[in-house]
Amino acid sequence: MIKITALYTHVAVFGLGITGIEAVRALRAGGVKVTAWDDDEKKCKVAADLGAVIQELIPMPEGVEALVLSPGVPLTHPTPHKVVTVAEEASIPIIGDMELFQKARTTFPAPSQVIAITGTNGKSTTAALTAHLLTGSGFNVQLGGNIGQSVLALSPAEENTVYVLELSSYQIDLSPRFSPDIAVLLNLSPDHLDRHGSMKGYIQSKWQMFENLQPGSTAIIGVDGSDETALAESAETNDAIISVRISGQAEKTAKVFYQEGWLCDQEGPIVDLSSIATLQGAHNGQNAAAAYVAALSAGAAKDDIIRAFAGFQGLAHRMQPIGEISGEDGEVRFVNDSKATNAEASAHALATYDKIYWIAGGLPKEGGIDSLRPYFDRIACAYLIGASSEVFSLTLSDTPHVVSKTLDKAVPQAVTDALAAGGGVVLFSPACASFDQFENFEKRGAAFCELVNEQISRLGAVA
């Protein structure tokens, strides 16, 4: 655990989820007075047990020097939360856990490097892969942020430590001075626009930490879209930092890119990604390019990085291979992509496979699946679940599909059809949020895996 010492004497914490509780723990461990509040009495009890004073923060208690805000609390849009307004009126800085981490780094017993990874899609896979490559190269790696542990739950740096942090736009919003050593921007597509007000606001939230980069820092930017390319051009005007372009589409200006199953640089092929089950598809090619450059930038040896690639196990719910059923005329493969909560994420999976038995649906995002029309010819049949079923049915139109309504009906239907047709890929890539039928995407993915395992046990398989 990281202790926050000598930075503040009194801090308020609003929102006591994982981030808020770890902030309370870190501040109290450093001797800082904490006044905290959450509408959930059980969460307040946890904070109180850590030594926080439990008190509503409207009005703001006297002597508060900073407000640590939960990332999920509205900061600017659609309207600021009342506690934000109260803090601003009192000229109290509003920050998040990344800002506390930034300040705490100066107190660590050893120097460290920080790699911060953001973007709309691929952040978690890239962060996990970067951590894997660096661990395989002999570094002491701490992985956290929006993946795994809260950043303040990590350990203070020891010799050869690299922090690999996944950051959402919400977290960057609350980190006005956060400045990593290596910053990665993977891609941009419309997301969380209710939080940022517009696409312009969303892009600016991601770009903030790049504007904070210090001389000698590295900016790694995916250039597979016009917005991203414009940001790369902006970064390249700063001669004090190192700027590296990457691509999942063999974009000619990229230094490292994905092409026909290979990770390549301008000198030629580097790693055969087609042989790594957890890194299939062009989007994972971009993730691999980002992780490769990040590891190199942190000081890892090229040969060590290349050797480490093959052992990457991937992440649950992100194009996760589950197993296979062997039929008389072919094999049915199962892929759990429950983390695909929007159409852009599902596009990557649909682009990777052929003869797809696609299970999709849930709580739809704006635009639905209209943007996925270019991939409909890859779909042998779709099985629609959740609140989006009827509207997705209209979009699919003549593409073969069944309104299954629930996952427990969709899985056996897809298996039966795939086996009858001589095999294929049963792909669970919802393109929707989970909240209409499941608590989160993890539980949704776990339910899919359980249903698949039932089918494997019943029909026989290569697991």
Automatic annotation (TrEMBL):
<feature type="domain" description="Mur ligase central">
    <location>
        <begin position="117"/>
        <end position="295"/>
    </location>
</feature>
<dbReference type="InterPro" id="IPR013221">
    <property type="entry name" value="Mur_ligase_cen"/>
</dbReference>
<dbReference type="InterPro" id="IPR018109">
    <property type="entry name" value="Folylpolyglutamate_synth_CS"/>
</dbReference>
<keyword id="KW-0133">Cell shape</keyword>
<protein>
    <recommendedName>
        <fullName>UDP-N-acetylmuramoylalanine--D-glutamate ligase</fullName>
        <ecNumber>6.3.2.9</ecNumber>
    </recommendedName>
</protein>
<keyword id="KW-0547">Nucleotide-binding</keyword>
<keyword id="KW-0573">Peptidoglycan synthesis</keyword>
<dbReference type="InterPro" id="IPR036291">
    <property type="entry name" value="NAD(P)-bd_dom_sf"/>
</dbReference>
<dbReference type="GO" id="GO:0004326">
    <property type="term" value="F:tetrahydrofolylpolyglutamate synthase activity"/>
</dbReference>
<dbReference type="Pfam" id="PF08245">
    <property type="entry name" value="Mur_ligase_M"/>
</dbReference>
<dbReference type="GO" id="GO:0071555">
    <property type="term" value="P:cell wall organization"/>
</dbReference>
<keyword id="KW-0436">Ligase</keyword>
<dbReference type="GO" id="GO:0008764">
    <property type="term" value="F:UDP-N-acetylmuramoylalanine-D-glutamate ligase activity"/>
</dbReference>
<dbReference type="GO" id="GO:0005737">
    <property type="term" value="C:cytoplasm"/>
</dbReference>
<keyword id="KW-0131">Cell cycle</keyword>
<dbReference type="InterPro" id="IPR036615">
    <property type="entry name" value="Mur_ligase_C_dom_sf"/>
</dbReference>
<dbReference type="GO" id="GO:0051301">
    <property type="term" value="P:cell division"/>
</dbReference>
<keyword id="KW-0961">Cell wall biogenesis/degradation</keyword>
<dbReference type="InterPro" id="IPR005762">
    <property type="entry name" value="MurD"/>
</dbReference>
<dbReference type="GO" id="GO:0009252">
    <property type="term" value="P:peptidoglycan biosynthetic process"/>
</dbReference>
<keyword id="KW-0132">Cell division</keyword>
<keyword id="KW-0963">Cytoplasm</keyword>
<comment type="function">
    <text>Cell wall formation. Catalyzes the addition of glutamate to the nucleotide precursor UDP-N-acetylmuramoyl-L-alanine (UMA).</text>
</comment>
<keyword id="KW-0067">ATP-binding</keyword>
<comment type="similarity">
    <text>Belongs to the MurCDEF family.</text>
</comment>
<dbReference type="GO" id="GO:0005524">
    <property type="term" value="F:ATP binding"/>
</dbReference>
<comment type="pathway">
    <text>Cell wall biogenesis; peptidoglycan biosynthesis.</text>
</comment>
<dbReference type="InterPro" id="IPR036565">
    <property type="entry name" value="Mur-like_cat_sf"/>
</dbReference>
<dbReference type="GO" id="GO:0008360">
    <property type="term" value="P:regulation of cell shape"/>
</dbReference>
<feature type="binding site">
    <location>
        <begin position="119"/>
        <end position="125"/>
    </location>
    <ligand>
        <name>ATP</name>
    </ligand>
</feature>
